[in-house]
Design brief:
single chain, about 450 residues, alpha+beta, 10-stranded mixed sheet, 5-stranded parallel sheet, 13 helices, 20 strands, about 30% helix
């Protein structure tokens, strides 16, 4: 039995499920409040519009998910997810060069987000002290001003309109970037320290059935733009049920979504604008299986809750509620897994008080996000029109990263180091080891 009585989690997405899994070991009761209705299978849901687009679970996320949800990876494969060799089955055109193809000994799972979420849901439903309440919208927090504590939520049932009041020892906000907490603080006149970068990103995706042929030597192909001149990139990836998801991304509002949607061949024409025609040629004779989906990310944000001196007691924030990062780099779900492992570590500790555990967690989240945020926005700022706070020594970061990208097309050692950093299993400093720096400096002169 858990050490604490009850935790309420707002939002049943990836972060909410991860938080529930962890907290079920420490609380007698864990309650998830989810706006969407339950799904009968791995289907997209209204509250996760990004679910119809390509997602990736990086190595760190994959390893962490296996730790928190033992046996789930096998279930992915049993129901059609695709297991690939991360470096051999990926064809990646990056900054004007194809990366090396070799057996690095790594594996990656290709699947749709609804497929991954559905399996997590089934696991969560088997945890006896976790309950998921669907069709529930949190309208407000119940706040005790004299102790600066949030101890409950006011909830609306979206089916019958009934109002419900629920209290708990811990309230976890996993409701995403447009969170209940952000709205609550704004209403209270409390300013959240925030870092924001305007990227004008668009996602346009469609699922296809490809024609069978013998010469296809890849399972996922990524054609990345070479900034600043190229703003559109795309990926074609095999997913469950022998389908292929094609996602095209465009920075700085480069894609006119209405133009793509107004004609039957609009999506195929969009893929003509990629730096390589590989994806266009694949889908020219392919059969579309879904309608075209569009998702926009005008800006990415990092809400620095750990810097707030008067953050209410009893409130814990996780996932996109804290940081919505550029999704092109596929790090969002993996960051959520790493945060969940940090949450587990904090609650395993017997040294801190209950509130100190929450404070400690928020500080850990900040340390998790900081290097990833800086790595990602250094790439976003290759486009002159991107606005926001620039990281320290930006031009040096960009110069060095560009050389790493180009050397990944020539050197297994450099590419392998990059793979580890990109997949969040090694820190950024791993790219500054003597052998890697020596290769960069010997190949390229600093100008």
């Amino acid at each position: 039995m858990g050490s604490y009585e009850k935790a309420i989690i707002i939002g049943g997405g990836i972060s909410g499920k991860l938080a529930a899994r962890v907290l079920s070991d420490f609380f007698e009761e864990v309650l998830i409040l989810e706006r969407d209705q339950d799904t009968e299978g791995p289907l997209p849901r209204k509250g996760a519009r990004q679910g119809e687009h390509l997602h990736a679970l990086l190595h760190a996320g994959q390893y962490g998910l296996k730790e928190l949800f033992p046996g789930i990876t096998e279930k992915f494969y049993q129901s059609g997810a695709v297991k690939i060799n991360s470096t051999n089955d990926l064809a990646w055109f990056h900054h004007g060069a194809w990366k090396l193809r070799y057996d690095g000994g790594y594996t990656t799972t290709l699947q749709t987000r609804p497929h991954l979420e559905w399996h997590m849901n089934q696991y969560i439903k088997d945890i006896p002290n976790v309950t998921v309440l669907f069709n529930k919208e949190v309208k407000d927090y119940i706040y005790q001003a004299d102790d600066n504590r949030i101890y409950g939520v006011e909830v609306k049932d979206l089916k019958d309109g009934a109002a419900i009041t629920l209290t708990a020892d811990l309230i976890v906000d996993a409701s995403g970037s447009s969170s209940i907490s952000a709205a609550w603080f704004k209403k209270a006149g409390v300013q959240i320290p925030i870092e924001k970068v305007d990227i004008g990103l668009s996602y346009v995706s469609q699922m296809f059935q490809l024609t069978e042929r013998q010469s296809r030597d890849w399972t996922i192909k990524l054609v990345y733009p070479n900034p600043p001149l190229e703003k559109i990139g795309g990926t074609i990836s095999k997913v469950e049920n022998n389908r292929y998801m094609v996602t095209v991304i465009g920075y700085q509002n480069e894609i006119q979504e209405k133009e793509v949607l107004k004609s039957e061949g609009g999506f195929r024409e969009l893929t003509k604008r990629l730096p390589k025609l590989d994806i266009y040629e694949e889908i020219t004779s392919a059969v579309p299986l879904t309608n075209i989906s569009v998702y926009r990310v005008p800006q990415i944000t990092w809400k620095r809750f750990e810097k707030m001196k008067e953050l209410p007691k009893g409130l814990l924030l996780i996932g996109d509620t804290v940081c919505r990062i550029d999704p092109v780099f596929g790090q969002g779900m993996s960051i959520a897994v790493i945060e969940a492992l940090a949450l587990q570590e904090v609650f395993k500790s017997n040294q801190d008080s209950f509130q100190s555990k929450i404070t400690s967690f928020h500080k850990k989240v900040s340390r998790i996000i900081k290097p990833i945020w800086e790595m990602v926005i250094a790439e976003d700022f290759r486009y002159p029109g991107v606005t926001g706070k620039k990281p320290f020594a930006l031009s040096i970061r960009q110069w060095y990263a560009k050389r790493i990208f180009l050397l990944s097309a020539q050197s297994e050692e450099v590419y392998d180091s990059f793979i580890k950093v990109m997949n969040l299993t090694r820190p950024m400093e791993y790219l500054f080891r003597v052998p890697v720096v020596a290769r960069v400096l010997s190949k390229f002169k600093v100008r």
